[in-house]
Each structure stands twice: as C-alpha cells, then as structure tokens.
Design a protein that fits this description.
Blueprint lengths: L4 E6 L5 H15 L2 E4 L18 E2 H11 L6 E6 L3 E2 L8 E3 L5 E5 L14 H19 L18 H6 L6 H6 L3
Parallel strand pairs: 1-2, 1-4, 3-5, 4-7
Antiparallel strand pairs: 6-7
Helix pairs in contact: 1-3
This protein binds zinc ion (ZN) (2 copies).
One zinc ion binds next to α3.
C-alpha cells in the first residue's frame, strides 16, 4: 500500500465482489492502487433519515471526514443507504471537491429499485460510473455538460446509463492525479 492509495470502505452490508469490482475500475481509471477496508458501522451514528427514508449524504461525508487519519489519500465509502444531498446535485453520491472523502450509494443503481428484473451487468456498470465520478470530484473535477462524459451530473438513472465510463477530452485535460 503506497501513500497514494484509494481506500474503499463499506459502511453497511455490501457484497465483497462488488467492492472488488469497484476497486479494479478505480485502479484502471486513475492508475492508483486501491485497498478495501473492513466494514465501518456509520449508519447508527448519523441522524435519522428524512425525505422518505433517504439519508443526508453531506452528514455522512462529514462524519467520515472527521474520523479519517491525516495520512489518508482518497477514501470512497460505499453504502446501500438511500441518500439525498441538500446542496449538491450528485444523485447517487457526494464528494469533497478537491478533498479526500467520497461517498456512493448503490441503492438506486439496482434494476429492482425501478421494479425491473435484476441485471448484474447493468448494476456493475452503474457502480463503476458513479464511483469514478465521485472520486474524480476529489481530484477537483467539476460537472461537465457533455452527456457522454462521466462527469455529467446524474439526476436520474437514465443519465447514468447514457454517460460513458470515461472522461471527455476537456475533463481528461483537467484531471490531475
Ligand atoms: Zn457529481
Ligand atoms: Zn467532461
């Protein structure tokens, strides 16, 4: 483990192969090592959900940021909790812009959420895009207006499915790892 490692932290029950898949995708995209930590129980420490069972992602991010070791490079928390963000427009997660911590929720990435049959391939593709998107925010990247760029903000799952898993030429130039 180098000092430039992306640490993936499940904060509730997440199947290990999903975390491994996200790790591989991040390694490929950012050319950095990843490591997967054991599950961190955060749900019991954050305020009760509001907005129909959705948790405030800013509060979870703040909880994480207050507890990370000073030496941490990038952290990606992965949760099955349904999130909402009062400020930012990332529907499936949130990140500290140019900071250390990012958060992604798998809750609305499953076909079952939309009353459709399970589709693991589609689910994993969405996990990949949202994880890369949030970690890219920690490298300072903002949202992009190109619908096919991974930095396009997803306001719904269609946006996620339409965008690719790569950065457009403009975002590629801006990404400094
Ligand atoms: Zn975003
Ligand atoms: Zn872009």
């Amino acid at each position: 483990m180098t000092d430039r490692t992306i640490t993936i932290i499940p904060i509730d029950e997440i199947n290990f192969p999903i975390l491994e898949y996200i790790g591989k995708c991040l390694e490929t995209t950012f050319d950095l090592e990843t490591t997967i930590m054991t599950r961190q129980e955060i749900a019991s420490h954050i305020p009760e959900p509001v907005y129909g069972g959705r948790y405030n992602s800013t509060n979870i991010l703040k909880f994480m940021a207050d507890r990370i070791p000073g030496s941490a490079f990038k952290l990606l928390a992965v949760t099955t909790l349904d999130l909402y963000s009062p400020i930012f427009s990332c529907f499936f997660g949130e990140a500290q812009l140019g900071g250390t911590c990012a958060l992604v929720s798998l809750h609305r990435l499953k076909q079952e959420f939309y009353d459709l049959p399970p589709d693991q391939e589609t689910f994993l593709a969405r996990c990949e895009k949202e994880a890369i998107h949030e970690i890219a925010h920690t490298f300072g990247l903002l949202h992009c207006s190109n619908k096919h760029c991974i930095m396009y903000p997803s306001n719904n799952i269609i946006d996620t499915d339409v965008k690719s898993n790569t950065f457009c030429p403009d975002c590629t130039c801006l990404l400094k790892i």
